[in-house]
Design goal:
- By secondary structure, the protein is mainly β.
- It has one domain.
- It is 10% helix and 50% strand.
- The protein has 1 helix and 10 strands; from the N terminus they run E-E-E-E-E-E-H-E-E-E-E.
- A hairpin with a 2-residue loop joins strand 7 and strand 8.
- The longest helix is centred in the middle third of the chain and has 13 residues.
- The protein is elongated.
- The protein starts with a strand and ends with a strand.
Length: 133
Amino acid sequence: MSDAIGELEFFSLKGAPEALRQQLLLVSRGGVPGHGAWRTGLRGVKFNLRSFVDMPNVATATFTLMQYFGAIGQNPVSLRWANLEMDAFSFNVLITNVTQGKITPTIHSVGGFWPGGGANLEATWELLSLGIF
């Protein structure tokens, strides 16, 4: 099983997802000793993952990178990371940006999705965790 963001599969996703967490608003007032904290609710957190996938050729890698850009701002999608479905932890992700797309032509490779493939595609994904309730 591979890692995936929605329907897009990867050989690997580096980094770690950030689940929803309780947010706090710290308060203090002049002349009053101490601090207070207000719970403002469970909220998603922005985080980055770096994807790597091999492709049969540079043209396919370029087309796939354009698909990545097209996924920005679409409906929230599921995330599979390290063979774990994040749906099990009650969150999906919103793709807020894809940057640093890097396409590297290869002469020969072993393993991966396309053994002997012709290109590697790397990208950095900026994601926001959103609750499934």
